[in-house]
Amino acid sequence: MVNVDFFKDLLQVLKELIERGHFHEEEEEEEAGHVSVQGSEVLRQRLLCISTAFELLSGQGEALNIDLNDFVQHLYSLIPPLSLSPDIESSSQASTGRSIHLANSAELLFRALDKVFAPRTASTSHPPWRIAAFTKRLLTASTHFPPSTSVRTLEFVHALIVKYPQLDALLGSDDRAANGVYRPDVDDPQLANAFASSAWELQLLSTHWDEGVRTAALKITNFARS
């Protein structure tokens, strides 16, 4: 029998780890002789917590009706700093220099995205504002990602557009689908108002120096719903 309290306790621990920023007890003070935790490693550890939360509820916890919106919002907030991380495709190194055999940040990002947008139950659905906010933020991040991660991001966005017709509004050149302004600086997808913007990043990426990125961007630009 599944113990609901057990899963809730585990998720609470994961939330605390995400908010704390790192898994180590040492203070991040080089002057005191402690080894600092690099920013890219902190991002990777937070992604690992988010992925773990969804993994927990994909097994025995699948039957539980536990809200993971906090983890979805944490994932959304990590996309901009990840896009500026020079080590997003690098293997993890612990703060002590000892190798950790875990996925790099890019792999963990897509693992988490797949979990978020592959609902655990058939009745689970995402509100349009969440889908649009993630799509818009991922497109913006694609202009900064290394080519291989950018291509993978564009392929993920293309899959979202195929799955969710509401996203056609971001591709059109007509009036925006929402009033107001898009807020890329807000880390709450519900308040971002993504439908007030457009997928202008595709025009930029269609002239990218990497052929793979150009091809992936043009595939989205030329998409026609049948």
TrEMBL record:
GO molecular function, one term: chromatin binding
Pfam families tied to this protein: CBF
Residue ranges of every copy of the CCAAT-binding factor domain listed in the record: 47-217
Entries under InterPro entries matching the protein: CCAAT-binding_factor (IPR005612), Nucleolar_cplx-assoc_3 (IPR016903)
GO-annotated cellular components: nucleolus
GO biological process, one term: DNA replication initiation
Record family assignment: Belongs to the CBF/MAK21 family.
Protein name as it appears in the record: Nucleolar complex-associated protein 3
Lineage of producing organism: Eukaryota, Fungi, Dikarya, Basidiomycota, Agaricomycotina
Gene: NOC3
